[in-house]
Design goal:
7-stranded mixed β-sheet; binds S-adenosylmethionine; 33% helix; globular; Rossmann fold; 281 residues; Spermidine Synthase, Chain: A, domain 2; single chain; 4-stranded antiparallel β-sheet; alpha/beta; 2 domains
Length: 281
């Protein structure tokens, strides 16, 4: 009888992934960390039994949380990643030759050390890129103290339970706003609206108070179960209105081959179905 990992992030809904081979299972200083092989998704990383990243479908999540703000901005040189311990977000950001510097603030060194060893395909060398500055700290502490100047801030955190909870507060968002350049963009991992609607509403309420342009955009990642995932979007700049042909020109110039992101998908991702739009205050 095969083993299954049962993810019970939600009170009335769970997903299970067959555990082909358990590669690692241990406690870090902050959370329970597992990696196992799954026949469909390849290697799977879970923290406290919640899927964080899989070899098979991480491209959707990482492409949409990086290329959307970076190509919409058009001149992003300094990027801040909060979380992202597996290195996938840094991987995609660093594919942009125009990005001069990436600061990545991860609370759990165990996730980084572990991901380098057991999930090298996720970071794909990002940790060795000279443009990357890896900081092991609580993102909530870092954002209060940083001098800022970031063109894009990406919050690639766990869900708002455990260490990730502090990254879903008005205080954190306020400091993140202060850390942005005038036309800078803040994007956040904001869960699956069908099951985590209140989280999105709370984030959007904070964003509406902070930013001229506050909304979310969507993409469906199979192992973030329950339908499309929402990415919070906040900026005082005009980036969301960037015309399709300009996005296309920037995408072509970036010379990045993607499996999910295209400029058309980028624009379409901001079209919200009623049940999501109604979650925005
Ligand atoms: N893609 C995943 C998702 O959407 O849930 C997130 C993946 S990434 C592995 C999440 C990272 O956030 C983990 O490495 C975790 O250690 C980190 N994290 C959680 N709370 C944090 C905090 N307060 N400051 C910095 N990093 C944090």
């Amino acid at each position: 009888m095969s083993d299954w990992l049962r993810e019970s992030l939600h009170p009335d809904y769970a997903q299970s992934l067959r555990v082909g081979t358990m590669i690692y299972d241990s406690e870090t200083a902050h959370q329970r960390l597992k990696v196992f092989e799954n026949g469909t998704f390849g290697r799977v990383l879970t923290l406290d039994d919640v899927v964080q990243v899989t070899e098979g479908d991480n491209f959707i999540y990482h492409e949409m949380m990086t290329h959307v703000p970076i190509l919409a901005h058009g001149a992003a040189r300094r990027v801040l990643i909060i979380g992202g311990g597996d290195g996938g977000m840094a991987r995609e950001v660093l594919r942009h030759a125009t990005v001069a510097h990436v600061t990545m603030v991860e609370i759990d060194a165990g996730v980084v050390d572990f991901s380098r060893k057991y999930l090298p395909m996720i970071s794909a060398g990002a940790f060795d890129d000279p443009r990357l500055d890896l900081v092991i700290a609580d993102g909530a502490d870092f954002i209060r103290q940083t001098a800022g100047g970031y063109d894009v801030i990406i919050v690639d955190s766990t869900d708002p339970v455990g260490p990730g909870e502090v990254l879903f507060t008005d205080s954190f968002y306020g400091h993140a706003k202060r850390a942005l350049t005038p036309d800078g963009i803040l994007v956040t991992q904001n869960g699956v609206p069908f099951l985590q609607g209140a989280e999105l509403t709370n984030t959007m309420r904070a964003f509406r108070a902070l930013f001229v342009d506050a909304t979310c955009y969507l993409a469906t990642i199979p192992t973030y179960a329950g339908g499309p995932m929402a990415f919070g979007w906040g900026t005082d700049g005009p980036a969301r209105a960037t015309p399709l042909d300009v996005l296309q020109g920037r995408f072509n110039a970036a010379g990045i081959v993607t499996d999910y992101y295209t400029p058309d998908v980028h624009k379409a991702a901001f079209a919200l179905p009623g049940y999501v739009a109604r979650l925005l205050p």
